[in-house]
Amino acid sequence: MSYALSDRSTIPAHVRPDLVVDFDYFAPPGFEQDPLLAWKKVQDECPRVFWTPRNGGHWVATRASEIDELQLDYSAFSNWPSTIPPNQVRSMPTEVDPPEHAALRAVISPLFSSTTLAFVSERAKELAIGLIDDLKPSGRCEYQADFASHLPIAVFLHLVDLPFSDREYLMGLVETRLRDPKPEKQNEAKLSIVAYLADVIERRRNAPGNDFISKIVNSEVAGRRISDDEIRSTLATVLIGGLDTVVASLGFAMLFLARNPDARRWLAQQDSIPFKAIDELLRRHGVVTNSRTLREDYSFRGIEMKKGDPILVGRIAYGLDDERFENPLEVHFDRPNAGQHSTFGGGPHRCVGANLARLEMKLALEEWLSRIPDFRVADDRPLIFGAGIACAPLSLPLEWD
Question: b/e per residue, 275-289, with b = 16+ CB within 10 A?
């Protein structure tokens, strides 16, 4: 994977030749078979922090200790921009640094209260049972399309009071935003999401309800009325997170369980799946990566970096680091540090909806395993993966007797 020195003209002068690797995170070698193992290979074979000329040129960090520092040290590493290539439209509160970040996050945090989780528990269980009962007689399904992209999205669209008929349109935009390697396509998708939300925002401002959008539209930030830019950007961030992360995580979890009958049967025997088991599945199957940007010239672990250098934060590989987790490719539901993964980020920017995502996964797996305890990957249809800002199974054909 070494980048040819004949191409040195494309590498900034401050980047050491021994730290240059030809790595495109939208298509890591072997991602078609397993994007997580592709990231693990990079983690094991490449420098801990390296430079790639791909996607405009950027640093990459794949080890847990470096990732922890990148996520916590805002004096050196800014969250803006947090994607490579960078957003044209700033994502709030994701791309706002402390202390300003706290005021915007405070607008969203109350929405994920115990009351919300109780509602989701009831609604998700009802939806899951209906979906599974419809699928069970056929003996097979395309899990991502038939189940994973229905359950968490139906719950989320209900929370924001958006019509379920808009699901496919919105999911298409989110898919482009997170996994299309062309920056212009990513930004077009983000702008389309913002445009979609503009009409919704106006309606909720004039006739507010009890949904997430109405509450954000009519909220205050640090004692002032929230601005239109903050509303649009915050809602776009919430929407993108709500429409993709749980879908991807459910897909990876079900693929693992389809291939590992002992683990599947252990979970099926539990009256209630422990959250520790959910965390272990999330630890083993990271989904999202993001980036930081150097505020000033900086020496990071002995590597000279320049102001403005972007760094890809390889959170996808965090849970696969054998320096942090013993036998990281194995899943052990009693792993003592399973919850110390970075699937939801770390520090002040840890995903505000993490507990909602964990609950949705728990309920989805419980209801599926109670009705279809034994299943396998069908071998007559392709298993398809996507890579990029978020990795995911895009097609997961399952069958059962």
Answer: eebbbbbbbbbbbbb
Nearest to 313 by CA among 145, 64, 118: 64
* Three-state DSSP class for residue 398: strand
The answer to whether 234 touches 216, Cβ cutoff 8 Å, is yes
Structural domain that includes position 145: 5-399
**Token pair 């997961």: residue:** 396
The residues near 20 (Cβ < 8 Å, ≥ 6 apart) are: 2, 3, 11, 50, 51, 52, 53
Residue 328: Cβ-neighbour burial (10 angstroms; 0-12, 13-18, 19+):
buried
Q: What is the CATH classification number for the domain harbouring 255?
A: 1.10.630.10
* pLDDT (tens digit per residue) in 182-237: 888 988 998 898 888 888 888 898 899 989 889 999 899 988 999 888 888 888 88
Question: Is the omega angle on the peptide bond into residue 85 within 30 degrees of 0, that is, cis?
Answer: yes
The percent of residues in the chain predicted with pLDDT above 70, rounded, is 98
Structure tokens at 105: 């996050």
Task: Find out whether 312 and 354 touch, Cβ atoms under 8 Å.
Answer: no
CB 293 within 8 A of CB 316: no
**Rounded distance between C-alpha atoms, residue 394 and residue 391, angstroms:** 9
* pLDDT tens string 139-166: 999 999 999 988 888 888 888 888 989 8
**Per-residue pLDDT reduced to its tens digit, 49-100:** 999 999 999 999 999 999 999 999 999 999 999 999 887 778 888 899 998 8
pTM for this prediction: 0.92
Neighbour count for residue 23 (Cβ, 10 Å): 23
Q: Tokens 């080890």 identify what position? A: 63
Counted domains in the chain: 1
Q: How far apart are CA 326 and CA 330, in angstroms?
A: 9
